Automatic annotation (TrEMBL):
Signal peptide: 1-25
InterPro entries to which the protein is assigned, alphabetical: Leu-bd (IPR028081), Leu_Ile_Val-bd (IPR000709), Peripla_BP_I (IPR028082)
Transmembrane segments: none
Gene3D superfamilies: 3.40.50.2300
Protein's GO biological process: amino acid transport
Keyword check for DNA-binding: no
Entry keywords, A to Z: Amino-acid transport, Signal, Transport
Species: Terrabacter aerolatus
Family indicated by similarity: Belongs to the leucine-binding protein family.
Protein name (record): Branched chain amino acid ABC transporter substrate-binding protein
PANTHER family (UniProt xref): AMINO ACID BINDING PROTEIN, LEU/ILE/VAL-BINDING ABC TRANSPORTER SUBUNIT
Occurrences of domain Leucine-binding protein (ranges): 43-371
Length: 380
């Protein structure tokens, strides 16, 4: 959960702020500096994702990274600060279009970090594209999002076309599974990812099932898994369903390895599943905290905890937009600025291909050990 403790930000943040100034060949003059206080745009960036509801932790982790990027920027540009506008979707795609309109109608908003989830991205991004409002998602991983021709769509991490094969590879090569069961939650994210894993595992998939979000009784799925003889189970979905699912499987005596993805990489999974979570493998196209030690130290100083899932990607996504504002870009000119962006961030080299996909992609495996999620290395 997000800490409410606030600490003085150490020198590590100052170093991050210095590194976040400008882009390759870019002008880093602020609007205020180039034309005085009257030229200051009083711009905002938006954070679009779940900040309340069952998947709020994932949104809050991203928001923490965004707020840290804003702290860094505003210290350097005290005469022309940028503010954050939050659009709390609760992770619900049905709320996304109205929230997108609200962001679009606020002409001070020059870019969006998000939408955080794939379903809400599918629902909101057509409106953002039509309005010319840039979105940089730090966490929505459905591959099809990049196939819509949206000129305003950018993704600061690898998609499930890379995560799915990596998960399948780990299941085959590291876990040595020969009988894998696959379950999805019917969501844009969960089903899309599970289908890729199914395809890559091929004939070793011994059974399939689909559950629904907010489901709590998994007895039918438990029966199917235990009777299949599966030695591994891949679940495409989120932590609110993953926790009771694995608890009920363990209670039924299933001994196989539970494999999940980034939608479950959240402490709430462990808090709710308790000892049943032990040994769970989690894949994620997100970097471990110690990959960026200066960012890790700055984040820990502000929030009294290590960066969590997509905190670094949230920081990087916000920094790109803030660099654009520093270079004098507004909503209309931000798209071309982001397209041409090429600079090292805290998680990776921040650069995009013609479809808005990240040009630098890595997928890591994590494991639940002694009640904590620990990195077990990059899946090559």
């Amino acid at each position: 959960m997000r800490s409410t403790l606030k600490f003085a930000v150490p020198l590590a943040v100052a170093a991050l702020a210095l590194g976040a100034c400008g882009t390759k060949g870019g002008d880093t003059t602020t609007p205020a500096a180039s034309g005085g206080a009257a030229a200051c745009g009083n711009y905002k960036i938006g954070m679009f994702g779940a900040l309340t509801g069952p998947n709020a932790n994932l949104g809050i982790y991203i928001q923490n990274g965004v707020n840290l990027a804003l702290d860094d920027y505003n210290k350097k540009h005290a005469d022309c600060k940028v503010t954050l506008e939050n659009y709390d979707s609760q992770g619900d795609p049905t709320q996304a279009p109205a929230l997108a309109k609200k962001a679009i109608d606020d002409k001070k908003v020059v870019g969006i970090v998000g939408p955080a989830f794939s379903g809400e991205s599918k629902a909101a991004d057509p409106a953002f594209n039509e309005a010319g409002l840039v979105t940089i998602t730090p966490s929505a991983t459905n591959p099809k999002l990049a196939d819509n021709g949206w000129k305003t769509f950018f993704r600061a991490l690898g998609n499930d076309a890379t995560q799915g094969p990596a998960a399948a590879k780990y299941i085959k090569d590291t876990l040595k599974s020969t009988k894998t069961f696959v379950i999805d939650d019917a969501s844009e994210y969960g089903k899309g990812l599970a289908d890729i894993v199914r395809q890559d595992l091929g004939s070793q998939v011994v059974g399939n099932d689909t559950i629904q979000q907010k489901q709590t009784d998994f007895s039918a799925s438990v029966t199917k898994v235990t009777s299949s003889g599966a030695d591994a189970l891949f679940f495409g979905g989120y932590s609110p369903e993953a926790a009771p699912m694995i608890k009920q499987l363990r209670d039924a005596g299933w001994k196989g390895t539970f494999v999940v993805a980034d939608g479950v990489k959240d402490q709430s999974f462990i808090d709710n599943a308790k000892e049943a979570a032990e040994g769970t493998i989690i894949t994620c196209p997100c970097v471990p905290p110690d990959v960026a030690p200066a960012f890790q130290a700055a984040y820990k100083a502000k929030y009294n905890e290590d960066p969590n899932t997509y905190s670094g990607e949230g920081y990087d996504s916000a920094t790109i937009l803030l660099d654009g504002i520093a270079a004098g870009k507004d909503r209309a000119s931000m798209v071309d600025f982001v397209k041409a962006y090429d600079k090292k961030g805290v998680t990776k080299q921040l650069k995009f291909d013609a479809k808005g996909e990240s040009a630098d992609i890595k997928v890591f495996a994590y494991k639940v050990e002694n009640g904590k999620i620990v990195s077990v290395g990059e899946i090559k």
